[in-house]
Amino acid sequence: MKELSRLLRYARPYLAALAVSAILMSIVGMSQAMILRLIPLVFDRVLDPNKPDTPAKLFSIPHTHFTVYLQDLFPATVHNIWTIVAFSLIACFLAKGLSDYAGNYLVNYAGISAVNDLRQEVFDRVLHQDAHFFEDHTTGQIMSSIMNDIDRIQVSTSTMLADWLRQFFTALFTLLFIVSVNWKLSLISLLIVPVVAVLTTRLGRRIRKTTRQVQDRTASLNQILQETISGHQVVKSFGAEDFESKRFRLASARWKSGNLKYTAHQALASPIIELFGAFTVLMLLYLARQQAKHTGMTAGDFTAFVVALVMLYEPIKRLTNIHNIFQQGLGAAQTVFRYLDTQPDVMDAPDAKELARLEDSIRFRKVVFCYPGAPDRCILDGVDLEVKAGEIVAVVGPSGAGKTTLVNLVPRFYDVTAGAIQIDGIDLRDYKLSSLRENISIVSQETFLFNDTVFDNIAYGKPDAKEEEVIAAAKTALADEFIERLPDGYRTVIGERGVKLSGGQRQRLAIARALLKNAPILILDEATSHLDSESERLVQAALTELMKKRTVLVIAHRLSTVRDASRIVVLDQGHIVETGTHEELLAGRGLYRHLYELQFAGTSAG
Question: Exposed (0-12), middle (13-18) or buried (19+): which is 513, by Cβ within 10 Å?
Fold first, then answer.
């Protein structure tokens, strides 16, 4: 009920459409009952030519001014029973068809709209989660929830809801018709309802459990698919096609097993209901035959009763199947609501203020940081560092020293475990996240570009940028020349992650994007580490332009790229072990000189 009540909250803006749909579906049920009401007329009047064709006797209506008026207005219709039945059938089917169409559309409009709102809320919540969330959830899991799980909810809340309303009102009015024909036999026919209710409840629990398993296995399939496609070059380079194929086959087999288990549970309800229904119909046929002998039940009434009874079991069976499918939606809702209930660790403080622009300095005060998954091993331990406005500070050190972690704390991708980071004397956590990140541009070694045009990728940080601004940023980043050679220039779509461009071209687009954003704080995370010498020369020239009049934190693997830094900070095992200029650190005999000599000798520092 908790998941159901939460789902219903998303339907509140569309209650009017649902209410109208319910009214229209009730007309569908009434039309069905009216068609059943015509069956005795067909058997007892139309098919018996010896019966009188008088309207007053036909409908047991005494002569009144109204009936006389009808006879004068529609003499053929009133006096011809065949015409009455024909027009009544047409009217019933027309009303049923139009109401079914409009009601089905409205309930799907409400359901799809509500689920679309839910999907947007989940996407927004995921989008605002911090880095810990993405470390704990794989891309496949997140995609599976946002797409597959919400699709299951959509089927339950729109398609199945429309069918539920249709079947509910059909069953209700069919039951009322059966009661009106013979209430004693109707009570006997309801004996199956408690059995159906118990079976449906028990099967529903199993179905929800198996549905959750299937959704988890679908997420695993999505994860393998996403990894294999994204890393197709690695797969090919290691000749791992057979391995990936086997991995996918095993995951598919688990998915198949779960689906078959779910299908077995879902399919079990229908034959059980039909079996109980068959016994009930046989018993009712026998009793109805006795009733016909002793109460004068006409052949038309008897036929209508049996037809209605058979028709009643169809919506009951459909309602059972709909309940089972609805359990799938509730199972999917559990996972979706877990995402909505996950609160990010990094959030705005209630009284957070705007950061206008860096004026004085960025200050690390005894900063300690441990990843939540390994709280006993801190990546940073007591870091003290001040970066003055306009200063270029390079952070170097062996692999695993905590360089990237240190700079990732500035835009609050993570929050410090202890200590504080201040901008202009105010703790980062006291600034609004949006204003803090507006003041920071990042160019990393793993440049991420979108499957969009060159223009839109450069303008990503400033969507309202004018064309001349984008071109100016590209020229400053030394990217304009290669962009003009592309098939459609700035309107060329560059593929997923910029796959149609070289590494150096992607980096220069990232630099152009950072230039256009024009943030006062710049973070460069090994921005040239994967480039060849020619690309590195061009990118380094572009970076020189980007760093002008900005406060810069540079992480560099190649120490030759940080010679001109205002200061170089050497980090080792979470501690700052050396600070100074390139010449000062080389003059000493510390870690920096050791790393420099290793690189000069052609050996990687790790």
Answer: buried
